[in-house]
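Minutes, project check-in
Item: structure for the 183-residue chain
Input as provided by the requester:
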Amino acid sequence: MQTPFWITLAVAAIGVIGTLAGVIVTQHQSNARERWSFERGREQERERWLRDDAARTFERRRGVYEDFYGALMIYGNLVEQRSRGMISKVSNEPFSDVYRISYIVQLYGTSQVFDAARSALESAGKWSLEQVGTDQEKAVGQEYFSRRAELVDAIKNDLHLPARKAGNGGEALPGPAGTADLD
């Protein structure tokens, strides 16, 4: 007995259709895997870019804080020297430098650091305008040292650095010729 021709054709058609269906399913799975792999690669690249951006921003912020604090210290030391009678007048140039850098602190710094920086700068400016030797001048000078200590705390908090040592009651202690024991 011979197999009818139509059964042979049906079996051949089923074989071709099964093969095509297998190719389609395999291709679909391959495309899905490729899409997932591509998206995962893009996500990893995006995460790397974010880490790199965060590292660059951190370094820039740290540099701006250093620049601002250094300029503030120079200005504060000049004001303190004036207060002690070592110089007669403080020029506007150091104040201008600190003020200019404060704009960059506003761009890169947190609002807490910017507020502390502005407060320290304002107290240094007020101190420079007070009449030397008065109680008011001494009070404003102490306010400057307190504001500067608050600035150091805000910067350290923002940069995740260890806090100041607790031995001085949380306030900056003025030292000789404009130094302060901040650490």
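Outcome recorded: Confidence is low (pLDDT under 50) at residues 168-183.
No further action items on this chain.
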